[in-house]
Amino acid sequence: MSNAQKTSHKMWGGRFESAPDDIMVEINASIDVDKRLYGQDIQGSLAHVKMLGACDIIEKSDVEAISKGLLQVKDEIEADDFVFKAELEDIHMNIEARLTEIIGDVAGKLHTARSRNDQVATDFRLWMKQSIVALIEEVSSFEAILKTKIQEHEMTIMPGFTHLQIAQPVTLALHFGAWSSMIGRDKMRLRDCLERMDECPLGAAALAGTSFPIDRDMTASELGFARPVANTMDAVASRDFVLEFLSTCSICAIHLSRFAEELIIWSTVQFNYVRLSDSFTTGSSIMPQKKNPDAAELVRGSSGKIVGHLTQMLIIMKGLPLTYNKDMQDDKEITFQAYDMLSLCLRAMTGMVGSMDVHVEQMRADTENGFSTATDLADWLVRTLKMPFRRAHHVTGQIVKMAENNRCQLDALSLADMQSVEAGIDETIYDCLTVDGAVRSRLFKDV
Ligand code: ARG
What is the CATH number of domain 368-445? Predict the structure, then answer.
């Protein structure tokens, strides 16, 4: 460390006699992570300084000098012409220090009626609002791909599964429709989350508000927030907006993971329901025949990490007294990572689903092989012979056993065979024994 850096901290060191230890600098610094918030930080400062001027708290000429200087800092960062310094801790102080270099002491007026506590909460909410909008767009692209597949496979028969055992014939449209419904709710959750967090912490200062005659409504609307956060202590202490965002991301990630798991299973030689495109698979360095669903596996794995980030944040917040505590500084690293992962997973799933081939014949063949119309047979007995369902279930079980012994499908049994189990059965039963008849008899309109 240089001697200059060894003097007490220039932003807050008035009462300190010695500089922070190198270890202190290292544990305290968040700049590597929060430099990502430079745009929001400058945006927040521009709104704050404008308000300070409008409320006659600082001179108009100071507002101009500070605003111009802030825009220059922004240009420098964007031109990669800015040195971020760990000893200046975070993005807020890095920007303010550079502003001071550019415009001199007047830069110090920017922090009037503000603390880093309300500043960071504002920056982070601004970032999160944009990020939620970006995620909603990515979810929408995924939904659009699913919609195309749903339309394409309106008539594609496949086995529906429970316990991963063939259950009843369904259409691929119904199956994809289920994913689409879940993803649609993820989008709703993102919107809810956005709406609830759309409040501006600025003006809360350290925790107790400020004695300056500030206009919190002005900064809130200048920054595009619906309103200021009402309680100043809540404004700097709460991170439930982060927890809600991470929960929402986690639920969405779990949906993607389950979907990815199906693609992994479906793309095996044993299932052979889909062929993932070369662009979303990898080869093996030793087994030339292999085509591995790595992207799907990584989506599945990432969901674990995203949930882990939610857990990290929940546990960080668990014992914190009001209001701000430095533990909260890690909220950004955790959230940025979860966001980046979810965004990548959404794009990977969109790419994978959009580019895969569906093997409709294999899906149909499995449906025809697995006695998947047994429930429809039982329903026929109930409907036509007015049999109680429990008895119909039992009778059907006996017929399935007979087909199993004869090594044939249900619709290949003769009428006489079936009548030996239940005399009332007539030839109309065959309508529901074929997979098409079975699917037709049920309603799949709402996919
Ligand atoms: N870098 C800090 C964070 O991200 C900014 C707030 C610091 N506040 C403080 N009172 N030390 O949380």
Answer: 1.10.40.30
Full 3-state SS string of 40-78: HHHHHHHHHHHHHHHCCCCCHHHHHHHHHHHHHHHHHHH
Report whether 187 contacts 136 (CB < 8 A).
Answer: yes
- Whether 324 lines ligand 1, by a CB cut-off of 6 Å, is yes
Ligand 1 pocket member 49 (CB < 6 A): no
Residue tagged active-site, from 18, 163, 211, 279:
163
Q: How many other C-beta atoms lie within 10 A of the C-beta of residue 133? A: 12
Does residue 117 have its Cβ closer than 6 Å to ligand 1?
Answer: yes
Between the CA of 24 and the centroid of ligand 1 the distance, in Å, is 14
Residue-wise over 108-121: b if at least 16 C-beta within 10 A, else e? Answer: ebbbbbbbbbbbbb
- Comparing C-alpha atoms, which of 438, 274, 420, 289 is closest to residue 356? 274
* pTM exceeding 0.85: yes
pLDDT in tens, 386-420: 999 999 999 999 999 999 999 999 999 999 999 99
Summarize pLDDT for 19-59 with one digit per residue, the tens: 889 999 999 999 999 999 999 999 999 999 999 999 999 99
- Decide: 90 in ligand 1 pocket, CB within 6 A: yes
Which residues make up the CATH 1.10.40.30 domain(s) of the chain? 368-445
DSSP E strand stretches across 71-174: 157-162, 165-171
CATH number for domain 18-112, candidates 3.40.50.1110, 3.10.350.10, 3.40.50.720, 1.10.275.10: 1.10.275.10
Cα 349 to averaged position of ligand 1 atoms, centre (Å): 36
The verdict on whether 92 is a catalytic residue reads no
CATH topology of domain 133-156+171-264+291-354: Fumarase C; Chain A, domain 2 (1.20.200)
Start and end residues for every CATH 1.10.275.10 domain found in the chain: 18-112
Residue 323: is the preceding peptide bond cis (ω within 30°)? yes
Active site residue 284: yes
pLDDT confidence tier of residue 7, bands split at 50, 70 and 90: low
